[in-house]
Amino acid sequence: MRKKLLVVLSLMFILVFSACAKTTTTSTNGKEESIKIQDDLGKTIELKEPAKKIISLYSAHTENLFSLQLDKEIIGVSKSDKYPKEVSKKKVYDYKEDPENIIKAQPDVVLLRTTTAKAHKDFVKSLENAGIKVISLYPKKLEDFDKYIKTLGKITGKEKVAEEKLNRYHKNLNAIKTKSSQIKDKRKVYFESTTNDLRTVTKDSFAGKAIEYAGGINVAKDATSLKKSSIASYGTEKILSKASEIEVYVAQKGVMNRTVSVDKIKKRAGFDKINAIKNDRVYIINEKLISSPTFRYVEGVKQLQKFMYDKPTK
To answer: What is the pLDDT of residue 226?
Structure first.
């Protein structure tokens, strides 16, 4: 009888212990699956698990999500998305249209640029009221790029891939900087961000840091930021005051600067006095390579370095 009682008590102990262990494991797993981040507008977002259905309404977000191997998870993009080529297979959405179009798709997450979220608050509110997580991200400075990519990795469960991509990115960028450090006669550069008012960029922006990494000297380091953005005011008068200093003139072409061309720059009044014009060192670079927060930035810095130090071709 005593032996049977011991067996029963032993079994009861094992069952109780197993139940407790199971409860603890579930609780721990629950915490691990829960994802909490703060977006660039200071909003705290919590996800129960990595996002599996994503609509990205900013081209850099889209490009970076593809870089993190999230093709299947991307169920929608914006109409301005062109890269990589796989975006052409995705359904197109627009924050200027009825938010119901996105609500019907039932995404886990909608990714926006911060300026878009601030300019279209009603759109954001409609999505949030429908239970959709809206995350606004945008790294204004190059130093914020790592944090931005890691946040995308955390949201999507691709933290390891994000880390690997960033390691490769920094390795390639450091190789360019090592090459630049060996250049003794550094070229002085003016970078045009927009034809409108001939604006430039802030020194700590993606394009501003690219000049430094490529081995150049930014003649517009004194440029003043506009509305706390990476775009900076400068203008014709200041540019011409440094005409003899500017050895290389680079203008980005894209959404912010659609109509720019080498020929148009050369024909501007007074620009014939600029050293870069005289020596045929005027170049156009893709805005997406030099000012957009993506891994292709390395390609943009390489291209900028070639503009500065390769012999000009006519």
So the answer is: 81
pLDDT at 181 exceeding the cut of 90: yes
Question: 298: domain range?
Answer: 184-309
Residues 192 and 288 both lie in one domain: yes
CB-count exposure of residue 49 (10 Å: 0-12, 13-18, 19+): exposed
Residue type at 225 in one-letter notation:
S
Specify whether the CB–CB gap between 198 and 241 falls below 8 A: no
Q: How far is CA 126 from CA 70, 116, 134, 306, in A?
A: 26, 14, 10, 47
The residue count of the chain comes to 314
pLDDT average, residue stretch 157-179: 97
Residue range 171-175: average pLDDT? 97
The secondary element (H helix, E strand) that includes residue 252 is strand 248-253
| Domain contains 10 | no
CATH code, domain with 243: 3.40.50.1980
Q: Indicate the pTM of the whole model.
A: 0.86
If you average pLDDT over every residue of the chain, what do you get?
90
As given in the structure block, the two tokens for residue 219 are 């003649």
153 shares a domain with 203: no
Query: Residue 255's pLDDT band (boundaries 50, 70, 90)?
Result: confident
Give the model's pLDDT for residue 96. 94
Indicate the number of domains in the chain: 2
Write the DSSP string, 156-206: HT-HHHHHHHHHHHHHHHHHHHHHHHT-SSPEEEEEESBTGGGBEE-TTSH
In a domain, 173, yes or no: no
User: Which residue from 207, 185, 215 is spatially nearest to 305, judged by alpha carbons?
Assistant: 215
Residues 200 and 276 in one domain: yes
